[in-house]
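TASK: fixed-backbone design
INPUT:
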């Protein structure tokens, strides 16, 4: 879907700590906060945000610290889960939303959504978690390798051209299972934006991953109804970790796996993902009235 409509507003603001936050707002009604994953941007939600606005919800999506058009600190010490969470939660405060929210988060955005719900349970009425990151043990062996960590922790990525990121995205998106019927799982416009987001992001963001505190002990205490969606071919986070998350949460989790998708099911097949979200919101009787 095209975000260039009169109903969708791109904005930026300065937080109390003088850090810039870039975000988009669409629609009026019950508030829904959408949070992307590592090396992504608010454009992760280009397909979902218009549907939310059209159904009578107020959707808000931001570029996290170090991503997109938001603040990009030079110091690598600024890139921790706690620092990103501060940026995220201060932005929510800036919105001055006077009613409980639904949080939708993918991967790192799922971790931030979980942290926010744990720390502010009265402000969250529902959660939608998409391949959520909640424990370091979820990370694949490749991502945890010392060599990759050294590369990601260096300035090499700052010098990497867009076309090289695009080659990587195209290769990892190629569908070896479907032959010539579906050469790529991700649509062309998604692959373009994904490579652009990799290029725009600060190289310091890759330090964030290894600063996540385990959320395992807190998960059973969450009470918000939750929709959990994951791709069975995730090569970033172990697919087996998502049913485990569902079992740990005692708040009536609705789970749905997408067999063809990997780490980004919301972008892989939005025509299947979006109805899951919209039906979940409807089933929770979340009022769309302002």
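OUTPUT:
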């Amino acid at each position: 879907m095209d975000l260039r409509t009169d109903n969708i507003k791109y904005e930026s603001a300065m937080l109390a700590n003088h850090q810039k936050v870039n975000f988009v707002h669409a629609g009026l009604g019950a508030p829904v906060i959408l949070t992307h994953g590592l090396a992504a941007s608010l454009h992760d939600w280009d397909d979902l945000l218009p549907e939310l606005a059209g159904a009578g919800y107020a959707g808000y999506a931001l570029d996290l610290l170090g991503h997109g058009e938001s603040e990009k600190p030079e110091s690598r010490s600024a890139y921790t889960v706690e620092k990103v969470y501060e940026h995220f939660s201060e932005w929510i405060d800036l919105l001055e939303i006077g009613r409980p929210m639904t949080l939708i988060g993918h991967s790192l955005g799922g971790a931030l959504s979980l942290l926010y719900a744990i720390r502010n349970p009265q402000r969250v009425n529902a959660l939608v978690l998409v391949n959520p990151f909640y424990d370091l043990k979820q990370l694949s062996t490749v991502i945890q390798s010392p060599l990759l960590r050294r590369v990601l922790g260096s300035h090499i990525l700052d010098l990497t051209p867009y076309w090289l990121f695009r080659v990587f995205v195209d290769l990892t998106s190629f569908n070896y299972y479907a032959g010539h019927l579906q050469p790529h799982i991700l649509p062309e416009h998604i692959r373009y934006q994904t490579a652009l987001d990799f290029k725009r992001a600060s190289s310091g963001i890759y330090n964030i991953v290894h600063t996540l505190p385990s959320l395992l002990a807190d998960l059973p205490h969450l009470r918000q109804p939750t929709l959990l969606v994951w791709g069975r071919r995730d090569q970033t986070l172990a697919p087996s970790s998502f049913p485990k998350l569902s079992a740990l949460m005692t708040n009536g989790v609705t789970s749905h796996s997408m067999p063809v998708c990997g780490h980004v099911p919301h972008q892989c097949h939005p025509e299947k993902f979006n109805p899951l979200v919209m039906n979940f919101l409807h089933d929770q009787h979340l009022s769309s009235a302002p």
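COMMENT: The chain has one domain: 8-139+207-283.
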